[in-house]
Fold:
Amino acid sequence: MISTRYAILVIILLALALIPTTIHSYIGATVNDGKSAQNIPLTLNNFTSTPAKRNPEWGEDIFGSTDWFERNYQDNQHINVRLFVARAYDHKRLYHHPELALSYAQNLGKKEILQLPGHPEIPAHVLNKEDHSMRVAYILLYDEQFIKNPITHQLGESLRLLFNARKPMTIFYASQSGPSANTEFDQSAVADLLSQAIESFQAQTKATSKVN
Structure:
């Protein structure tokens, strides 16, 4: 039996413990920043695109995202790059080996983190096949910050997320196959398209963030 002198302290602790549950389970509070992956244009300067043939529910099933697209872009040199962009509140589903779902059955063993050309503040997670016949690069964006180490980011955000509404993470994922993939990253079509897609996304009119 708990002494009555501890009753107020116990009530306070229980109330604090219920805050995260109320925010995330009952209210499901999320922040809408007014941006959308879908608003990235079909044409980006020297790139034009066609949509990939994915089931409309695929992005939600695999990544927990209702705001996503996958398109095949081609530049004026006829180089093809596949671009996938998605936003989700479950960050781990985006950053935990996205190549397993997006580049299935490809042996992308060589991984490094490079700066996006012209954007030293943007770390790109770059994966290559050993024979240089395929290159993949993806970039993670959360709350106007680009994420180099998603595990460290998740740990750092854990306490804040207990008591605050969730914000979406955005992934920009591009892949390029064939002889054209065997170029320096800073000269690649992958880096070029990622740069343009991110600039377009960030240029979207930023509405006043609101909690839903």
